Amino acid sequence: MTRTLTEKRILALQHLQAHLGVAFPSCRLLHQALIHRSFANEQGLIGFDNERLEFLGDAVLELVISEHTYRCFPTAPEGELARLRSVIVCEHTLAEKARGLNLGDYLLLGHGEDQAGGRDLDSLLSDALEAVIGAMYLELDYETCRTFILTILGDDVQDIWVTRDFVDPKSALQERVQRWGLDTPIYDVYGEYGPDHDKTFHVVVSWQGEVLGKGRGKTKKDAEQDAARRALQQLAKEQG
Which sequence positions are flagged as catalytic? Predict the structure, then answer.
């Protein structure tokens, strides 16, 4: 596989476009959006990975969600809008959307990364989705990106606003468990995966010896928040 697309790759990308509901004028940028650096390095395609497109797509994504929340909740203070946005565009949420689009099937990974399960790794999937959005912006226009982003994330904005899941999960979890006792939740890192420049931390949160939830994130803080969020969701199911 090189910068020149094979017929098989073109057919695969055409299938993906149908799944995305977006037609690209050319497959070239969409192809690049799905190339992880490990593959580019193995194939001698230095600089032809998805990192620059991911950088652009991240900015477009934040703008779309910022504008949407601003218009949807005209009386909400800036702090609430910022927290709501951070939950919507977090790594875990984007990775789940990428899984729903089967992006992992189209990723080009280096052999080692593929063998290590990179095709289903939150960080790689979320980056790929942002890169696809970046390619969409360059190949098409802002309105197409906006429509696509709100199609996959618009309902989440409304749902999270109603449930108030954007409130700091660690604080919310502490408030909840302290209704049952004075002990505070304990967070422990039980795994670190990936190279130093791209680590993913795995954290478990427990209370009085009982595991409440597990989470992942690019920093320990993000992983703790994710663990607290999952714990709150599980507690709501058990009590609901």
Answer: 58, 130
